Amino acid sequence: MCGIVGILGKDDVADRLLDGLKRLEYRGYDSAGIATVVDGAIERRRASGKLVNLGKVLAAEPLAGVTGIAHTRWATHGGPTTNNAHPHATDRVALVHNGIIENFKPLREELLARGRKLESQTDTEIVCHLVSEQIEAGLDPVEAVKVVLPRLHGAFALAILFRDHPDMLIGARLGSPLVVGYGDGETYLGSDALALAPLTQRISYLDEGDWVVLTRGGTQVYDQANNPVERAIVNSGASGQLIDKGNHRHFMAKEIYEQPIVVAQTLRAYLQRLEDKVTLPIPDFDLSVIKRVTIVACGTSYYAGMVAKYWFEQFARVAVDIDVASEFRYRAPVMEDGGLMIVISQSGETADTLAALRHAKAEGQTIAAVVNVPTSTMAREADLLLPTHAGPEIGVASTKAFTCQLAVLAALAANLAKAKGRMTPEEEKAIVAHLAEVPAALNDALGRDEAIEAMAGAVAVARDVLYLGRGTDYPLALEGALKLKEISYIHAEGYAAGEMKHGPIALIDEHVPVIVIAPSGPLFEKTVSNMQEVQARGGKVVLISDAEGIAAAGEGCIATIEMPKAHPLIAPIVYAVPVQLLAYHVAVAKGTDVDQPRNLAKSVTVE
Ligand code: G6P
Predict the structure, then answer these.
(1) Are 297 and 343 in contact (CB under 8 A)?
(2) I need a labelling partner for 210 at 20 to 30 A (CA). Which of 146, 353, 408, 465 fits?
(3) Which residues are identified as catalytic?
(4) Backbone φ and ψ of 319, nearest 5°
(5) Architecture of the domain delimited by 3-235
(6) 3-state secondary structure 126-178
């Protein structure tokens, strides 16, 4: 999993390759590297760690060359060292790779048996040697790649550079995305349209199994059976501007603070305020035929899906199955005819979610995609696109994408309920009114920032933290725990409050803060009973509730976070803010790298 860029340029390419990598750093930041052809030899610059390190290497030792490839890595095979950094190279071939070559072990043994010297522990270097061998045997690069590609199992996007053909790049994709960009006398390869946005908007998306030869004379795409094919050139519409942090110290803080605006932006696309209607941008699709819903997603997007399950079942009375995407395909899921699969993804590129989408599509399910990146693979492959309008999310820990996903999913639940005859115009009007309150309620919730910052120190010293919630607050408890783990490296778990007594309560002592998410409402008293069970055992509770809830149960807590009163429908959207802010301030107190936490990547493009 990684990001790749290639440029067949008119002028030196190193700076532009580095710029392209900056746009792809969301795919991993374990190491980075660039290769070009200079005076008949392949030259490389590589560095472990974040892209800034490669920038320093390039500043100290600049790299010439008008044709080059570049890579930012999230380590799969082999540690995040300089030696394992891409591009991998022999003296004739350099190569960058996004994906996993699953049969790399037998291929590696084969190469070693033939006396090839391998320098890294990566699966990628194997491909480099396989292509090199063919060239050494006398094949030209196109024939060499044609021989090697069918030998590779797994997922890959490749960009390959050749010492003896400095006016050529070859790209290939299977399972991992790759686009071709067309500039003025230049051509490009990139993991996505965003990477190429400052260079060109003219993009063609390669299909599964495609490979492409870029030369000065033109570009030729081949399909998996090696037939020459045409792939349409479209305008990507991707913005070439690099996003900055504004007045914030971190992207994550900026994105938390953007939520009132971007959620309003998202809701604008789904609410018809004047008519008191909730609509979807898929007017021709008849939701009344939906018999069952399957939701599949990963990470934070999965928790948005968990909240939606409550809504779909409560409002539309449609049964919902939900799975983390990495489990979905491998448990032989039963999907009824006439089912709707909803994939939820900020990036639209997460490999597990994409694989689930394709699996369900092949089984005849209608696919709806709730995605934030409109140019993404999922957005293109789904039958029904339900965009979130969160804008680019840079912080690895997802925040504004989550609340925008919830806004879209609430709109979808209401539409499903309408289609099923389970929502009257009066009820729809009330839902419109509640959803319309969300931006102001989010603003109000952000007003608790200082209070949350003040109590973050008490959590920052903990080794373990528990989050509890019931109903739609249960997924929020999971999301709160995930946020804390991701960016502060504190072990945290989310539990359904009622499940505490079945095991986790054994963990409670005076060193374990327990964050209880409990807006006043129908489930409040039950959650408070569970909270009291924790307190009775010396547990230190932080209660997140509204004034009414805090008045009723705040006594004896080590801290309370008072939220605005929110209708139960919108509470999960509004209560996302304090859990995000708490994780953020704890991470800042601990001094971790908030926007690029260790071992993680924003978009996980390997299974
Ligand atoms: C990664 C990110 C998470 C994100 C998850 C799913 O693990 O670090 O923040 O929730 O992927 O990503 P997606 O783009 O599919 O929503």
Answers:
(1) yes
(2) 353
(3) 2, 602
(4) -70, 140
(5) 4-Layer Sandwich (3.60)
(6) HHHHHHHHHHHCCCCHHHHHHHHHHHCCEEEEEEEEECCCCCEEEEEEEECCC
For residue 139, which phi and psi values (nearest 5 degrees)?
A: -75, 155
Cβ neighbourhood burial of 487 (10 Å; 0-12, 13-18, 19+):
buried
Q: Give the pLDDT score at 1.
A: 65
Strand 319-324 versus strand 292-297 pairing type: parallel
- Does the pLDDT at position 332 exceed 80? yes
Residues 6+ apart with CB under 8 A from 200: 181, 182, 183, 186, 188
* Level-2 CATH architecture, domain 444-595: 3-Layer(aba) Sandwich (3.40)
Q: What's the token pair of residue 398? A: 């997802």
Centre of ligand 1 to C-alpha 73, Å, is 17
Atom of ligand 1 nearest to the CA of 301: 16
Strand partners, 341: 294, 367
Q: Name the residue at shortest CA distance from atom 4 of ligand 1.
A: 299
CB-CB contact of 280 with 274 (8 Å) = no
CA 606 to chain centre: 11
Residue 139 Cα distances to 87, 110, 133, 222, angstroms: 22, 20, 9, 18
| CA distance linking residue 71 with residue 5, whole number of Å | 6
**Spans of all domains in the chain:** 3-235, 247-436, 444-595
> What homologous superfamily is domain 247-436 in, according to CATH?
Glucose-6-phosphate isomerase like protein; domain 1 (3.40.50.10490)
What gap in Å lies between CA 479 and CA 233, rounded to an integer?
40
Asked if residues 372 and 399 have their Cβ atoms less than 8 Å apart, the reply is no
Chain Cα centroid distance, residue 266? 19
CA 604–ligand 1 middle distance (angstroms): 7
pLDDT single digits (tens) 242-277: 778 888 999 999 999 999 999 999 999 999 998 999
Task: For 25-42, write each residue's pLDDT tens digit.
Answer: 888 889 999 999 999 999
| H or E element at residue 55 | helix 51-60
**SS3 string of 231-297?**
CCCEECCCCCCCCCCCCCCCHHHHHHHCHHHHHHHHHHCCEECCCCEECCCCCCCCHHHCCEEEEEE
Q: Spell out which residues line ligand 1, taking CB within 6 angstroms.
A: 298-301, 345-347, 350, 353, 396-398, 600, 602-604
Atom from ligand 1 closest to the CA of residue 297: 15
Helix 576-590 vs helix 449-460: crossing angle, to nearest 10: 50
Average pLDDT in the 288-292 region? 93
Let me know: does 181 contact 8? Beta carbons within 8 Å.
Answer: no
Instruction: Evaluate whether 247-436 and 444-595 have a shared fold.
Output: yes
Atom number in ligand 1 closest to CA 398: 9
Report if pTM > 0.90.
no
Q: Is the peptide bond before 87 cis (omega within 30 degrees of 0)?
A: yes
Nearest to 41 by CA among 111, 92, 95: 92
Task: Calculate how far, in angstroms, residue 384's C-alpha sits from the geometric centre of ligand 1.
Answer: 21
CA angle 468–474–476, rounded 5-degree value? 90
For a ligand 1 pocket test, name from 602, 606, 607 the mutation site with the most ligand atoms within 8 angstroms of its C-beta.
Answer: 602
